[in-house]
Amino acid sequence: MEIIATADSMKQAEQLLRAGVDRLYIGNSQFGLRLPYSFSVEELREIVHLAHQEGKKVTVAVNSLMHNEHMEKLPGFLEQLADMEVDAVTCGDPGAIMLLSEMAQPIPFIYDAQTFVTSAEQISFWEKQGAIGAVLARELTEGEIKTIAHSLTIPVEVLVYGPTCIHQSKRKLVTNYERIVEMEDDTSKERGLYLREPNDETSQLPIYEDESGTHIFASEDVSLVPYLADLYEAGLKTWKLDGVLAESENFVQIASLLVEAKEATLKGQFVAEYFVNKLTELQPQTRKLDAGFYLKNPDDVK
Asked: What is the CA radius of gyration of the chain?
């Protein structure tokens, strides 16, 4: 059983490891999508060393939308990751996976093609190409997730806490809008920009730009905390915590709570109401919690 968490700084990485997180998910924004922070190669090396000292693991994101300029630089980056003995990378681009297979010291990869990872057959195909795991699309329902998990021999990652990206474009949509209205403002994640639903003045859909383009998120954070014991019983034991929009200290507290929930689950002592109430206390008031697509009818999603 494994809890994976993003990290937004060296300090937070250390705090998460001390809190009991099993694996850190980090990277550089040139090759990884929607990361809380873009670490330099030397920072990545330091975090990998720290995690290994603690008996923990590190996965580096290599799941960006790869263009020719990315492919030209990717072999060098992968060699650096291999040299620092990264435990795995997430990857969904076939060209990038081919480059991994051609390395003298291939790095294990976890298949991550974002919203496209929706069937056991697709994951099985990539398992035959060497994938040691897969990241499930966040638009899957409970029945679909369990059906996929029961059909596989490799672990699949499920988002149990964090935001869902509902749109990405390589175009700088906010910047283009600002040009039209003749204004200039910061469009980064730190600026805290958001959109509103046309008929809901209280809605806040975070939006920001980075070198991968424009990202828009749902107004709620996914929480599968009420269903953790059910996930465990179904064999879904790789739980992801995504703090891309979270405040640093708050996210560490939430990660600590999920580590406690994991330990309670393993002991058969998980009480959903207790952990739901604790998470509600920690959750920022500006971000509601819901189950995402988990409880939806698959026909309603399609």
From this structure: 19
* SS (HEC) of 226-249: HHHHHHHHCCCCEEEECCCCCCHH
- pLDDT tier, 202 (very low <50, low <70, confident <90, very high otherwise): confident
Q: Say what the pLDDT of residue 209 is.
A: 94
The answer to whether residue 231 is domain-embedded is yes
Kindly state whether residue 192 falls inside one of the protein's structural domains.
no
Distance of alpha carbon 81 from alpha carbon 69, whole angstroms: 19
Average pLDDT for 52-75: 95
Pick from 162, 163, 179: nearest CA to 171? 179
**Where does the chain show beta strands of DSSP type E?**
2-6, 23-26, 57-61, 88-91, 109-111, 133-135, 156-169, 194-197, 200-210, 213-223, 238-241, 288-290
Band of the pLDDT at 302, cuts 50, 70, 90? Answer: low
CATH number at residue 235: 3.20.20.70
Which domain range does residue 257 map to?
1-162+217-298
Residue 127 predicted with pLDDT over 90: yes
Q: Is residue 195 domain-resident?
A: no
- What's the domain count of the chain? 1
In-domain check, residue 202:
no
**Average pLDDT of the residues of the chain:** 95
Using CA atoms, how far apart are residues 29 and 33, in angstroms rounded to an integer? Answer: 6
